[in-house]
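$ fold --in a.seq
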Amino acid sequence: MEILGPFDLPQFMFSHFPCVDFGGNLFGQWPVGIQFEIGREQVSRATELHEFIFGEEDDCILVSQDWTSDDMDIRADRVTPLFLTPGVFPNASPSRFQTVEVSPFDETPYRLNWARLPLNAFNAAQMFQAVANRERGGAPSIGSGVYTIDDRKKLIMHMYDDRGLDVIAADPSTLVPLYARFGCWILANQRGKIDLRFKELTTAAPS
């Protein structure tokens, strides 16, 4: 598989998303974001969001958050790390990653593995389905936390399980088209907060 140039993930996070970690709940950690409802019968929403966000790009940063085997939720052989999950990488899984060990205060240590990949190097629909399968008992199932980054737009996308998906950005204007197009998918209990953040940006100023 073609691995594109290196990417300094720690520096990217420090520069554009300070205080955000990969412990989940990106929406709760950052003031500029949208939380979408997915649901067991609507995993295709994640693929549609991914295509809308990354469709004009040639590549993205794919990040896998992996815990040790003692800490991972291994309920069967079906649960695998992202980069070893069958069906996600049509040709071959990436053989080389960049890696950093993370030891958060009062949380379980984990490892981040990432690579800059062409968008056609992985099957996004299969990847999101495997994320959803983790809670459903289906196979294949990804045990990793999965994050997709657009370093040009300074945006991070994370489907945390079959219930929902977070998208955060450094600049609110980056998310306006996403809000305008897919606002009806916003998680109901977050709608008021998100509408308050974005309606001013989507309302034309009076002439």
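$ fold --in b.seq
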Amino acid sequence: MSAGPLAGITVIELAGIGPGPFATMMLAEMGAEVIRIDRPSPGVFFADRENADLLNRGKKSIVLNLKEPEAVEITLDLISKADIVIEGYRPGVAERLGLGPEQALARNPKVVYGRMTGWGQSGPMSSLAGHDLTYICYDNGAYMNTGVQRSSATPLGAATTTTPVGSESYGRKGNRKDLTKIMLAHNVGYVAQASIHDVGDLFRKMKKAVDHDGPSFINLLSPCIPGWKIDSDMGIASARLGVDCNFWPLFEVEQGKFTINYRPAPVKPVAEWVFSQGRFKHLKKHPEVVAAFQTEVDKQWAWLEMEEARTNPARRS
């Protein structure tokens, strides 16, 4: 960019993930010239990813293997002409590479050296990540944007392109992995389930998640029209029905305390939700699978009520 309040400012980004690239993207959008030092290996650090990673927009890139002395010298030469350096390596890595603050300031005493670490460069927690982020999972039950392949979130009996229905198959075998429970097992401080049909509940949980001091997680039921094989005007209704049959309970867990936010009355049978979607239509020939589906939903709801009674007894009194 040539215009903006930071026009004429040069930033060297030692490529990493998360807050560093985001910070330099914002500087680039304000007119700074950002030169990213990329690693030669493919993956998240691959230089030719301009169309794949929005955090790279507005930046220039140079691929260097910083374990080679010549690459370090090139980087220091760039730093000698720059105004800002941003790095987000683990503590001590930049120093080992010869690109720490002392080396940078020796080449350019006026450079501003910014570091993105969770808990500083030293101390008992320096090796730990310190991300304070809210992760929202749009759970549609498959890899919907790449061809409707089965994922770990795919429900029992669902037909996908990788679990097709045939004489030897009724679709996805086995129950889905419960990502909400996985987050709870990692002791995330705020965890919630929400659905796109209840915007008020979703907004309240989003505010709690953002305000929470530390990582937070929301699992959001979000139907995929073609993947679920439903009409284009059925997305909201299908999400609501998923909640009303207890397939997708609305609840939140704050520092280990469970709160059920909505109790359907009456609870609708899972079959009503299942047979409203084309991906399950074949299960009319497999009533035993639908029965197993219902049993699993009832089991998970009973677990949820038990956890609320155990951790939040005032809620049940």
